[in-house]
Write a structure and sequence with these properties.
N-(1-d-carboxylethyl)-l-norvaline Dehydrogenase, domain 2, 2 domains, 7-stranded mixed β-sheet, 11 helices, about 50% helix, globular
Length: about 260
């Protein structure tokens, strides 16, 4: 089948994209946690099916184990969408994926909720945009790697700032920016320092914080602290230590947060 799509990970996010691909007319072949990717690739090849793209829709903590086992035949058609994603996450495997910075929320029992349009970059960006637009999820295609890197860092600043702030003050992003702006700014500044160390690039802090606030305004009621918040803080502090960074605000929150 031409223009077939493989979706690895059929959780909430994978199911949204699968519905979009189906709506756009693409046959979808799911790979669940219990399935072996090599076996699926061999079975598809035996049927003369070569997917046009392979969407990796697993959680960020499962990304590297999946990429380590990725069938070679799929390596040039990978699409990634995880949070806390940076170029080293894929370059260490020799991949040049299409990457989407997802700005919509999907939870069990609720429909997708768009915060701001989701940017996407890479050779399969058109197919991803087509799928999302078909189910009324706003997106836009980026034109350069530099633009993608900024968008990935922006998403990381938003995710880490809100989650880590939530560990201390709870509430939603509207309340965070209205009542705890100094805290949010201090956390964001630490996160930006970490992103710069991890990428070897300098970023316009004002532009990143402005972008974060724009996302806040896209859904003022978005809760700050999800269940992943403690893990995000722990990973950030571990990466800071490995990179010789003293992120005082993050360390203080870490010292006050229960293990």
């Amino acid at each position: 089948m031409r223009n077939s799509v493989v979706v690895v990970g059929m959780g909430e996010m994978g199911s949204v994209f699968a519905r979009g691909f189906l709506r756009a007319g693409h046959p979808v072949f799911p790979v669940t946690r219990s399935m072996n990717m090599d076996v699926v690739a061999e079975e598809l090849a035996a049927k003369q099916v070569m997917p046009s793209l392979v969407l990796i829709a697993v959680a960020e903590t499962d990304l590297h184990p999946v990429l380590q086992k990725l069938p070679a035949a799929w390596s040039d058609r990978v699409v990634l969408l995880q949070n806390e994603l940076l170029p080293n996450d894929w370059s260490q495997y020799g991949l040049e994926p299409t990457v989407a910075s997802v700005w919509f929320e999907k939870k069990k029992g609720m429909d997708s909720k768009v915060i701001i349009p989701s940017p996407v970059y890479g050779k399969h960006a058109g197919g991803i945009a087509e799928a999302l637009v078909s189910i009324d999820i706003a997106t836009h295609i980026l034109l350069s790697r530099e633009a993608l890197l900024f968008e990935l860092v922006l998403k990381n600043v938003y995710i880490l700032t809100t989650n880590i702030a939530g560990l201390q003050v709870g509430g939603n992003v509207g309340e965070l920016w209205t009542h705890h702006r100094d805290l949010a700014t201090a956390i964001a500044s630490d996160v930006i320092k970490l992103q710069q160390a991890l990428t070897g690039q300098q970023f316009d802090s004002s532009a990143l914080i402005e972008g974060m606030v724009k996302a806040f305004n896209g859904d003022l009621n978005h809760q700050c602290m999800g269940r992943s918040a403690p893990g995000r803080l722990a990973r950030a502090l571990d990466l800071a230590e490995k990179n010789g960074l003293n992120l005082a605000t993050l360390k203080n929150i870490g010292a006050l947060s229960p293990a």
